[in-house]
Amino acid sequence: MDLRADLVNLTSPSQAKIALFRSLFRGREDVYPRRFESRKTGKSGYAPAGANEWVRGICEKPRIKCAECPNRRFLPVTDDVIRWHLSGYDDQGQPLVAGVYPLLPDETCFFLAVDFDKTGWREDATAFLGAARRLNLPASLERSRSGRGAHVWTFFEDAIPGALARRLGSHVLTETMEGRPDIGLDSYDRLFPSQDTMPQGGFGNLIALPLQKGPRQQHNSVFRSSPNGLLAFR
Fold first, then answer.
1. Rounded to an integer, what distance in angstroms lies between the CA atom of residue 161 and that of residue 218?
2. pLDDT digits (tens, 9 = 90+) for 22-60
3. Does the N-terminal peptide bond of residue 193 adopt cis geometry, omega within 30 degrees of 0?
């Protein structure tokens, strides 16, 4: 996945694993999205983690969105947050799935992720990975949380403009389609970051962080390094 990964293995201390994770899946650190699921409706999604969330007299969700709330106090990314994400539960025993906002306030990013999530995702993601390798672009394959899609990640040593990262992703997509013109790329969904510039009053699109314990136990949200790429997934 990354040369730094060679320095960390199963026997490494948890702090080393967390440090590696944070060095790769690096986005905004002043705020992170946390997955929620309504017990009443079954609806799920992500919202910025906040210290004042649902505090009576302070939080006025859903009438006022977090991004527009004058009382908002977002929680930053910490080693504990990553530890909770990887172990599945926070310090209160509540399930925790964290995401990341790839686009930084200065409109740069440390990674590019490409999402495939429709019929044919295995073949399309594998083809994209092959195109990236032909272009000498390091890329890593993750099966998504649902098990019905994939993300292809590319990590940058230094932050680069989000617009440049997206142009890079578009170029690899074009190379992929030119290599299989009769098949297409129907399962491609989007790039992360999903915007060239920061939306007014927002954070840009989020992507779920991988390796959370729940889906990981189902062999989802994990990476494969087999030469056959996604063909190794069962």
1. 35
2. 999 999 999 999 999 877 777 889 989 986 666 676 766
3. yes
pLDDT 10s digits, 92-142: 999 999 999 999 999 999 999 999 998 899 999 999 999 999 999 999 999
Query: In terms of DSSP bridges, do strands 150-161 and 108-116 run parallel, antiparallel, or are they unpaired?
Result: antiparallel
High-pLDDT (> 70) share of the chain, %: 84
Using CA atoms, how far apart are residues 100 and 110, in angstroms rounded to an integer? 11
User: What are 54-80's pLDDT values in tens digits?
Assistant: 667 676 666 667 667 776 779 999 999
Q: What is the pLDDT of residue 111?
A: 98
Q: What is the mean pLDDT of the chain?
A: 88
CB atoms under 10 Å from CB of 51, counted, come to 12
Continuous H helices in the chain: 14-24, 79-87, 121-134, 162-179, 213-216
The whole-angstrom separation of Cα 195 and Cα 154 is 17
Rounded to 5°, angle at Cα 119 from 127 and 135: 15
Of the candidates 22, 21, 45, 18, the residue with the CA atom closest to the CA atom of residue 34: 45
The burial class, CB within 10 Å (0-12 / 13-18 / 19+), for 201 is exposed
The residue type found at 104 is: L
Q: Where are the domains of the chain?
A: 3-100, 108-232
Q: Does domain 108-232 have CATH number 3.40.50?
A: no
